[in-house]
Amino acid sequence: MFESFDATLLARIQFAFTVSFHIVFPAFTIGLASYLAVLLALYLKTGNWVYEKLFDFWKTIFAISFAMGVVSGIVMSYQFGTNWSVFSDRAGPVIGPLMGYEVLTAFFLEAGFLGIMLFGRHRVGPGLHMFATLMVAIGTLISATWILSANSWMHTPDGFALNESTGQFVPVDWWKIIFNPSFPYRLLHMVLAAYLTTALVVGGVAAYHFLRGGGQRPEVRRMFAMAMAMIVAVAPLQIVAGDMHGLNTLEHQPAKVMAMEGHFQSHPDGAPLILFGLPDRDAQTVHYALEIPKLSSLILKHDLNAPLAGLDTIPRDQQPPVEIVFWSFRIMVTLGMAMLALGGWALYARLRGRLYESRGLHRFALVMGPMGFVAVLAGWVTTEVGRQPWTVYGQMLTAESVAPISAPAVAASLIAFIVVYFAIFGTGVGYILRLMKRLPTVDEDDMIDSPLRTHGITPGPANPDRVKEHHHGA
User: Fold this and answer.
1) What is the total count of domains within the chain?
2) CA–CA separation, 129 vs 19, rounded Å?
3) Per the record's keyword annotation, is Transport included, yes or no (predicted)?
């Protein structure tokens, strides 16, 4: 029944489906690992049990999210061999080592210290436990660095030579490969997106408990205050980083920016900013366009009258799918503005002394809780679909990269992925949401370390000083 389908399109859909599931977990765990390190450092510095309880609350959620991210990432990597073997063969000399470095550095670092972070707080000294937590946080950032370096090279390839006999991309300068032209901007943009995503989730969970009547709990208040402070600080930085990334993209991938802006025609004396409309790739126009004259030239060239080329300068068969890129970009930008508005509202409420009393703010924060994931997905769609029809931009077409595999085979595995992913990861996400609905409260039993159950020793508090510290903090 799938003989009439295009194998390349199905392979692209399958990879898009699996990467969409995968990216939400690293986008969360990168920020959450750093948040855990901050919480633990504050607890060790101040002795305040609120930070300790928040650490315990979020570390369980981190562990589940980290596990699902690892599993989904492993499955995704197999597709390089099953569906994209030609790409793997030709680009493998460049992409392979970069992904290998990610395993040898980041994954080993995370795997080596994760157990100590999760289970070693009362088994090792506080210094070692803090060090392990910090190593896990650094490991997530190193992982993002290598993966984004490999992906950025596909967008702005540099430091390679082409072997004419085999068609392979051969490394010539690894510094240029790793630090390719788009890599610094994309890394900064992604890391800030991860921190915003985590802050929105933490703030959304705290807002949920505020609205459920738990707003008097010091844990909930501290959680909400820290999340809002992060959004206030990072949201403006993300807008600046996004502008820098856009200017870099205009320099190296102009067709992508043309699709994002909906510029089918060139504008020699200033291009308008199209806010909304219905792009039509066949007709090469945007129907019902709502636009602001010359504002796009001001944003992209910092000059109202600066000329901007349009898709009429790009051959039809090399134009990205404009409709998808146009709308995914607007979703991302709209959510970015909403994050900025949330941060501004939170700052205003803080200055007015109503951060914990403003139910309107809490409702807005609850609605915005999952929006970081949506923005990350919209950003990745803009980036990856905007690169089409190229796998390696300007060097290797997507149609040339797919494995010699039949459409029914790809369709069968795609259906299997959809069923299994929704079943397994749906269950995992459901369990995470159940954990988030619980208050990170302090019970009397929690104020005493679990007793040592060694043979011949009477069970009792493992650390009597900690009992007094807890009661003093309460």
Assistant:
1) 1
2) 32
3) yes
